[in-house]
Amino acid sequence: TVLVVDFGAQYAQLIARRVREARVYSEIVPSTMPVAEMLAKRPRAIILSGGPSSVYAPGAPAIDRALFEAGVPVFGMCYGFQLMAITLGGTVDNNGRREYGRTPLAVGLTGSTLFEGTPAEQSVWMSHGDACSAAPEGFAVTASTDSVPVAAFEDDERRLYGVQYHPEVMHTTHGQQVLEHFLYRGAGIEPTWTTHNVVEEQVAAIQRQVGDKRVICGLSGGVDSAVAAALVQKAVGDQLTCVFVDHGLLRKGEAEQVEKDFVAATGVRLKVVDAQERFLTALAGRTDPEEKRKIIGREFIRVFEQAASEVVAEAGEHGEAVEFLVQGTLYPDVVESGGGTGTANIKSHHNVGGLPEDLQFQLVEPLRQLFKDEVRKVGEELGLPSEIVWRQPFPGPGLGIRIIGEVNGPRLDLLREADAIAREELTAAGLDRDIWQCPVVLLADVRSVGVQGDGRTYGHPIVLRPVSSEDAMTADWSRLPYDVLARISTRITNEVADVNRVVLDITSKPPGTIEWE
Ligand code: XMP
User: Fold this and answer.
1) Which pLDDT score is estimated for 319?
2) pLDDT band at 337 (very low <50, low <70, confident <90, very high)
3) What is the pLDDT of residue 9?
4) What fold characterizes domain 2-186?
5) Cα 350 to ligand 1 centroid, rounded to whole Å
6) Ligand 1 contact via 347 beta carbon (within 6 Å)
7) Which of 109, 93, 228 is nearest to 148 (CA)?
8) Where are the domains positioned within the chain?
9) Has 166 been annotated as catalytic?
């Protein structure tokens, strides 16, 4: 394991992912964790992340010197670099030599462990106010910039390395290479962490946990629950029953996809519950986004509980109750709920798959260690069809939070049609993997005047919200080709009754969220 010490501001997750891309397993720990506890995890290497503060700010997170004296290779980045510098006796100035954004870096030492084989001048991403002016004793300065004399240093003897910039971000041209140099050359770690190993490990772990007991899993149609279920199925086969709640807020073909594709690929036992009436009744007259979310979440849990007790009753004939519940919890959820450091700007989603604690099941969470892209790889490794593995994220509350206004049957039908057209055209244009997701939103309480044929129309607008993102925490609007947008617009206005206008949402996140509600 490589530990990534989190000094806040979301850099740590990205670093952990980059380490895993180098096929080395990594875990994030909060900077408040005592060094003894970090070392007890027997890490092969430790990375100190960037962070938002100045090392001189009152209450700025510090690190115990013992970390650098344990013989474990350490790589400090940005804030971690400065902490390393001052903790080991170097100088960090608070003299206004700030650098933000893309900066040219001059690599000044041949034979550097980190920079071996990279160009003498490279572009790196900087974001700092303080600057290191003198490296600690024993360190060689390996790079500088116009305004910062010490932009990277290393001490091969003690296996301590640091860079002032952010090697983990895309704008740093040789960032991944430098990180891999640290892992492979500096720390001597072999790149052996593969999807195949993850599957084998998880299957064994599930078998150990579940034994011969029965398990249920709520399927949402999304990739996480599908992959989690497939892993459990591989581990314990027939002991698993999946429950799929059709709340009527699904997209076109969604329920069928789960029923056909997923069952065909896994052979899993599936219980489908048609609860459309119940959800529509509960949502009648409601327009407030949070209220809608809460109603959907609550109804979902009731339906799921009922389905679960039916599964239990059915199992009862064989004398066994269901003891385990599968959840598709991902690593970012784990970090966000237990990490302890400030990630305040993340909106927490009440996942409709989430269940109350009094359900009395033990949880099986085989994806707890994985990021979304890794989950997809596991799905492929398990042989799930690409329609499932590469599905774009779809929120638990479904179309219920994509109808701005009251949710009802006719509006859902209308939105389902428009959404199906948009998805069809994006798929036909080969854009599915370029965009993160493309919510299609119905402004149900807005009308505008149009003209179609010879007549006046007074219809609703449909909003296209294509976004690109790495993890949905931030996002940019996708620059879709105009001809694709034109086809979607023409088809939606021609084929969907009551829609006479298609508009494009060109807001990034922040300030907009991805979903409209
Ligand atoms: P926002 O709208 O906050 O969404 O930018 C970020 C990502 O989360 C998805 N999303 C949800 N997923 N339950 C879910 O399972 C929810 O309640 C929920 N709300 C939003 C959204 O589609 C996007 O991918």
Assistant:
1) 59
2) low
3) 67
4) Rossmann fold (3.40.50)
5) 9
6) yes
7) 93
8) 2-186, 195-389, 408-504
9) yes
Q: Is 380 a catalytic residue?
A: no
- Does the pLDDT value for residue 413 go beyond 70? yes
Residue 216 has pLDDT above 50, yes or no: yes
Q: Which residue has the higher pLDDT, 473 or 421?
A: 421
Mind listing the pLDDT tens digit for each residue in 131-168? 999 999 999 999 999 989 999 999 999 999 999 999 99
Cβ–Cβ under 8 Å, residues 178 and 118: yes
Name which CATH class applies to 408-504: alpha beta
Find out whether the beta carbon of 515 lies less than 6 Å from any atom of ligand 1: yes
Which residues are annotated binding-site positions for ATP? 220-226
pLDDT(195) > 90: yes
Which residue has a Cα nearest atom 20 of ligand 1?
Answer: 395
pLDDT grade for 95, boundaries at 50, 70 and 90: confident
With a cut of 0.90, is the ipTM above it? Answer: yes
Q: In sequence order, which ranges of 152-247 are alpha helices (DSSP H)?
A: 175-180, 195-210, 223-236
Tell the CATH topology of 195-389: Rossmann fold (3.40.50)
Give the residues across from 75 on adjacent strands. 47, 161
CB 84 within 8 A of CB 55: no
Residue type at 456 in one-letter notation: R
**Ligand 1 atom with minimal separation from the 350 CA:** 17
Q: What percent of the chain has pLDDT over 70?
A: 94
Mean per-residue pLDDT for 7-21?
Answer: 88
Terminal-residue alpha carbon distance, the chain: 39
Phi, psi (5° rounding) for residue 195? -60, -40
472 pocket-lining for ligand 1 (C-beta < 6 Å): yes
Atom of ligand 1 nearest to the CA of 293: 17
Q: What is the pLDDT of residue 357?
A: 63
State the residue for tokens 């489908």.
272
Report phi then psi at 201, rounded to 5.
-60, -45
DSSP state of 136: P
pLDDT band at 317 (very low <50, low <70, confident <90, very high): low
Cβ 514 under 6 angstroms from ligand 1? yes
The beta-strand segments (E) located in 383-447 are 403-404, 440-443
Residue type for position 37: E
CA dihedral of 327, 331, 332, 337, whole degrees rounded to 10: 70
Q: Do domains 195-389 and 408-504 have the same CATH topology?
A: no
SS3 155: strand
CB contact set of 453 (below 8 Å; sequence gap of 6+): none
Q: Which of 516, 499, 407, 391 is nearest to 465 (CA)?
A: 516
Q: Which of 78, 132, 217, 438 is catalytic?
A: 78
Q: Residue of the nearest CA to atom 18 in ligand 1? A: 395
Distance CA 380, CA 385 (A): 7
The packing angle between helices 482-495 and 409-428, to 10°, is 150
Spatial separation of the C-alpha atoms in residues 132 and 148, rounded to whole Å: 7
pTM: 0.80
CB 310 within 8 A of CB 321: no
Cβ of 393 closer than 6 Å to ligand 1, yes or no, is yes
